[in-house]
Queue: 4 jobs
Job 1
Amino acid sequence: MLAVERLNSIISVFRERKIAVIGDLILDKYLWGSVDRISPEAPVPVVDVKKESYNLGGASNVAWNLSALGVKTVLLGVIGKDENGKLIRGLVEEKSIVPAFVEDDSRPTTEKTRIIAVSQQLLRIDRESKEKLSPEIVRKILSKIRDISEEVEGFIISDYGKGVVSQEIVQACVFSGKPVFVDPKPKNYHLYKGITIMTPNRKEAYECVKASPEESIEFVGKRIMEDLSLDKLLITLGPEGMALFDGDRVKKIPARARKVYDVTGAGDTVISVLATVRLSGGTWEESAILANYAGGYVVGEIGTAVVYPDTLKEIILLNLQV
Ligand SMILES: Nc1ncnc2c1ncn2[C@@H]1O[C@H](COP(=O)(O)OP(=O)(O)OP(=O)(O)O)[C@@H](O)[C@H]1O
Ligand SMILES: [Mg+2]
């Protein structure tokens, strides 16, 4: 059994951590309104917009999770030369994250706009490019990785498949000798050789090795570890918690039963807490257990949520006191 005191002492050094996040930056935009009529132009509802709001998405949501934990966070990524790029930069700075952005005038800042009326999402509009980055932009990112690798204790690669994560970028992080935590995109599976740990969800794990649904999670995990020569792997299992693979051992960690409101962003919280606890001296098992608590907490909150150190301490008390 884990001692509450030990976990609390790990949490109390979160603020001494310094971690870099690299990946696809996304601006989540929400237009909130009401519907009173059907358009005379086409059989579609007309939304009268009352409010507009923005959130950090993709890799920038991972950075927001880290910063909420008290970690000094550097965020590397690509923005367009546009208004949305400025918006992301503003949101990032507001949350005490240090931006290390490369501006690319050949692509837009990735934007996902949700139109919501009567508490229901009517439409999502995406503006993005999934093209590979130009060699010049890649060079700029690599030089930023080199600049910060001395000062950070680890890297989180948050791959949303929009083109930022490439072999060179993964290898530059690995080459730094610092631990590299990866939230993968199955189509980029082959890029992640030499990393420290990967955190796919169940679907992504099966896709990575093209396993049929009858295969066991143990089989799938072992295949991934062999393919990428990994010693650690964390497969998140949604309402079933997670499976931590450590060398030859597999440990299933059951989910915390609680009311589920919104599962989006749980994966971002999991990798943030996992990396922070691990770099704060936690064992892999402690890191996964706290990440699982944190994941269970955020799915019970409305909207993409983050977890603060005090909340994490309360959750530990609730779970370990009995
Ligand atoms: N329904 C649930 N009940 C309890 N805990 C949950 C539930 N769904 C997710 N979690 C927690 O969140 C973690 C990550 O969830 P999941 O496996 O769905 O990741 P994901 O699909 O990567 O999420 P995301 O939507 O952010 O990409 C789980 O390991 C678990 O700890
Ligand atoms: Mg995920």
Job 2
Amino acid sequence: MDIVFDQAQASFDQRVVLQPLSLRLTERRIGVIGLNGSGKSTFSRLINGLLLPSSGRVVTNGHDTATDTAKARAEVGYIFQNPAHQIVLPLVREDIALGLHTRRLSKDDRDRAVLAALERLDIAHLLDRRAHELSGGEVQLAALAAVLVTEPDIVIMDEPTNQLDLRNRNLVQRVINALKENVIVVTHDLGLIADFPRVLLFHDGQLVHDGPAAETIDHYYRLAA
Ligand SMILES: Nc1ncnc2c1ncn2[C@@H]1O[C@H](COP(=O)(O)OP(=O)(O)O)[C@@H](O)[C@H]1O
Ligand SMILES: [Mg+2]
């Protein structure tokens, strides 16, 4: 993974919500924390070109998100804050296959890839379930499987344990820790990122701390006091 922000700024209707930011991310696990509205989701959406910088550049694995959006996007799997919105087809198997629709795969190969993605997360039993009948934890994992099937280098999860009970939260944490992919986690669940080598703290649209988890969490406590 190699993500470069070069004086990248984000604005909505002339209002700057992310101040010009320059950094390079190469660690396999990156946490992003900060108060509500501090710019965490904005930052994460810049990485895969869901949002383009109003000035400056974001280059994800060598692809400028503004000029090479499709290639940048293919590097990143993004799981939204409310993954239920990401599930569009009735059956789990159909929804996960959706990510493969641009590939020229035989039906057998597609079915195999879908099953493999579910098996990686120990949720093969959800294959023929109705997506809108899944529990919160199952939705989070199904959305993750839908992303993994596209073989991204980087997985971004926006508040993945929000609204999960403790058992599902712990399950999602174990799954995140076991992923071979690079992972960027935006969260208020500080336990989730407590072992991460690098955690970014945003405040009022600015990166105010960038360091190992314990150090950044300490800054966050002081900032929120
Ligand atoms: N689509 C949008 N249009 C206008 N303002 C937005 C939009 N998305 C986010 N913002 C604003 O940008 C700021 C940062 O939002 P966001 O990145 O979602 O914060 P966080 O994820 O840290 O809660 C907030 O003030 C928010 O209201
Ligand atoms: Mg957010």
Job 3
Amino acid sequence: MTIDSGKEHVPYSKLICIFRSKGGAKVKTAQSQVLKGHCLCGACKFELAGPHNWVGNCYCESCRRATASPMTTWIGNPNGNWRFWGIQPKTYRSSDHAERGFCPDCGSQLYYKSERYPNEVHFYAALLEDPAKISPSSEYHSEERINWPGIAVHES
Ligand SMILES: [Zn+2]
Ligand SMILES: [Zn+2]
């Protein structure tokens, strides 16, 4: 597979965003911090420049089904502070106002954007090369959370 990592294939202006922080508080990250991430196969890459708008966990059914995971951790990043590299993501219209992007080769979810939140795009924190650089500080749609018992602790 050939990856043209030097070519920006989705202009900033083409991607508008997803859902926004209810709290509205900016996440305290260094202005200079650039978070890098990529899909499972590495064909789709992205960079997020700080400061990020918010980092939070979502438990909604839509995120759950899109990711096949009970919880999704998002980074809301303002337009103008993110960019994609590599191959063009495919998109799926997940509601009347929202679109989800994913890698056409490996299927990894890449972003969420919504006409309701036109000034930012939401990125999956679990795709970061170094997820420890951020920490979720808000929760969304807790009412849709799956009430599974906690993960068992294995004693050695
Ligand atoms: Zn991929
Ligand atoms: Zn959600």
Job 4
Amino acid sequence: MQSAKSFLASAEKVAFDIDHREKIKFNISRYDSAVEKGKSRYRDIELAKLRAARIKRKVVDNLPGLLLQFERSITKNGAKVYWAENAVDAVKIAAHFAREANAKTLVKSKSMITEEIELNDHLEKNGIESIETDLGEFIVQVAGEKPYHIVTPAMHKSKEDVAELFHKHFNTPVNSTPEEMTLFVRKYLRKKFLDADVGVNGANFLIAEEGAVAVTENEGNALLSASMPKLQIVIAGMEKILPSIDDLDLFWPLLAAHGTGQQITVYNNLFFGPRKKNEKDGPGKMIVILVDNGRTKLYDDSTIRESLACIRCGACLNGCPVYKNIGGYTYNTTYSGPIGAVITPHLKDFKEFKHLSFASTLCGKCVEVCPVKIPLTELLLYNRDLAGKMDLAPVKEKVALSASTFFLLHRKLLDLFGGNIKTVFMKIINDSVFGKKRKLRDFPKMSFTKQWTKNKD
Ligand code: SF4
């Protein structure tokens, strides 16, 4: 209940923050025009989405077998695979190998799963400095914040905000341009890449047949994080599987088109294990941590399982009218927007996070934009139904609904009250259950039944 309360309080505050709205509107409008261009490059985008959806559904249905196949093939390529049941296990495994490598500094490329397991906090407790190397992630790390969005972590900041932030932390000119700031970060991180003992990256896809980790990025930082330190740690959610390398010709452009509107992302890396004997560079050791952390729960529910097809492109967040108004931080979860509202109650505590599934207009925009055709609105309704079956509705909502049901089923009793009384009664219910911002229409002074009887005579 605490989460629901703070969600409502934050939603109300953020939705009326004009400055915030302007920034989000500006950034999403740029995204919208880029994505429109990205999609127009396809002769038949619907067919591409259909193919991707079919492949991902097959993956989800055969997930246990494909994961084992991935483990076998990447192990054959020289990597070691570890299975983490939850966030604590995942962090323990990563920290163990970082300590074993006597790591003082770790460079990390953008990865939502490391946010989910709160890797940075735990590494810092172990005396290891963890540096974000993606520009957006670097900005939020310097600001002491969490990513605002799963693809664009600093979407809520304007270039002026970032210039001010860097000025405060690094004494760069307060009026730095985006180019100047990028060059500054580039130089700053170069030294960190050289000093780092460990590199951590996530995975956009885990390739089962060939045993590879596919990472797509625009800055080259993931490639540097993975290849310069002597130890590479890959941390990936168990749903990231693709059957074969051949599937990338469909998924890489589709992810780029929906994530940023690009034809293809600038760097598309494939890591097939540690450096081989005849190779000059790359990490000497590579470990892959496959994280469950609630995904088995998603898998076990044959309806909600569909959400495991998500490729984290972020399109449903950008399309969602609720997300655009209340912003990423209001969700207070790693995964926000429609997909976050579907999976978070299952990944975390259903009772605590079920309210997210109610924070949707069910307009269907998220379903329309999803490249793997996840029926997000159906899954949100499924969660709502579950919450009802589990009797998790707040007491005042239950009382209000029972009273409404009672009166609606007893028409004569309802007609005893005039329009004004009904309006006041409904206002009390509405304000306490749905909030004061939702305006209801007034009841007519005379009910339909009374008007009918009067006019008939
Ligand atoms: S649910 Fe679909 S649109 Fe949303 S992030 Fe996942 S793949 Fe993208």
